[in-house]
Amino acid sequence: MGDPHRVGIVGLGVISRAYLDTLANHPAVSIVALADLDALRSASVAAAIPGAESMSVERLLARPDVQTVLNLTIPAAHAEISLGAIEAGRNVYVEKPLAVTFPDGRSIIERALTAGVHVGCAPDTVLGTGTQTARAAIDGGLIGRPLSATAVMVTPGHERWHPHPDFYYAPGGGPLLDMGPYYISALIHLLGPVRAVVGAASRLRAERVIGSGPRNGQRIPARVDTHVTGVLEHANGALSTITTSFDGVATTAAPIEVQGETGTLAVPDPNTFDGDVRVFPLGGTGWRVLAPRAGYVGGSRGIGLIDLVSADGRRSPRAGGDVALHVLETMTSLLTSVAEGRRIELTTAVQRPAPVPLTPVDDWKGSHAYGR
Q: Contact at 8 Å (CB) between 254 and 153?
């Protein structure tokens, strides 16, 4: 099996807990270094992980035994930390989005290519049995030629639960850049790359009220559009309509639905790893649930990094930087379309990542044999 892959983590905010639950005891990786703006928080987390050491970001990036930097900072810092890691010769796995601007994202990918290091990026939820079973159904011809899709995410806003939600409502935030990566990544796995987009957006109110934590009741400005919708033209001719909103309350729409010539698929929430995939065939009388047929069973955040480590040069990472850059350009092009009122053609293209075979939880949690 070889020695565990050595990982340093930068950023220990809310999302880090989910990654640590997956990675801290995984035999394929060893968390050796931790860094956070809050040194006390970093030290506290390090104390609970055998062999891990708390340190500054600069020291972590320079540490020679760190092979991959897991970048869990806020989106505005993604590019700075990722580029610093790449310049130090480290692989990078970054929380979504890859960066907050397309030029920054492109710089990450181009510099990594020059440096000969790998880039991975969330979301890895699309590697679970939900999205992967839906993909297997499409690839197997269950609904015939896919014609269109809808993707819908409606919430009243993250300030209701997040104690420090400011970055969600600052440039680089908003519902599309925050939640869009889940839905657009899933659409790329299901239908392939996007060639052009048209977008529209609105902003319900100028302020938000924090609903929890020490700043409960504090008002913060909403400096970005909080309801974004658009049409994605896929290279295969399919059309997807996406809605991401921090302004609504709830929706009855399936998170993702794919319409084909001979059937329709209802796909579970791409912010989760599993869930029921349902099909309504042409001439049928109702929906039926498909048994899981692909994906990492019982997947959890961090499995994209495990998938990257297990690829070991034999294949491209399934949650790779190339997909993340294409997702980022899709989102930023939608926002450009909103600002300029025109259809935007994308400059990037990407291959659909390799499908994930049905992989039992014991396989991906217990050995290097997973991720074929």
A: no
Residue 184 host element (H or E): helix 174-191
Asked whether the beta carbons of 270 and 186 are under 8 A apart, the reply is yes
CB–CB of 300/18 below 8 Å? yes
Q: What residues contact residue 115 under an 8 Å CB cut-off, 6+ apart?
A: 86, 87, 89
Domain at 5-121, CATH homologous superfamily: NAD(P)-binding Rossmann-like Domain (3.40.50.720)
- Residue spans of the domains in the chain: they are 5-121, 126-290
Shortest CA distance to 165 belongs to which of 135, 210, 128? 210
Q: How far is 330 from 154, CA to CA, in rounded Å?
A: 19
Omega of the bond leading into 353 within 30 degrees of 0 (cis): no
For residue 108, give the H/E element and its range: helix 102-115
**pLDDT digit string, tens, across residues 336-361:** 999 999 999 999 999 999 999 999 99
Fold for the domain defined by 126-290: Dihydrodipicolinate Reductase; domain 2 (3.30.360)
Beta strands in 222-360 (DSSP E): 227-234, 239-245, 256-260, 263-267, 277-281, 288-290, 344-345
> pLDDT (tens digit, 9 = 90+) per residue, 304-342?
999 998 887 678 899 999 999 999 999 999 999 999 999
Residue 188's nearest CA partner among 352, 328, 329, 356 is 352
Q: Report strand pairing: 91-94 vs 53-54.
A: unpaired
| Cα 188 → chain centroid | 12
pTM of this prediction exceeds 0.90 = yes
Q: Could you count the other beta carbons within 10 Å of the beta carbon of residue 367?
A: 12
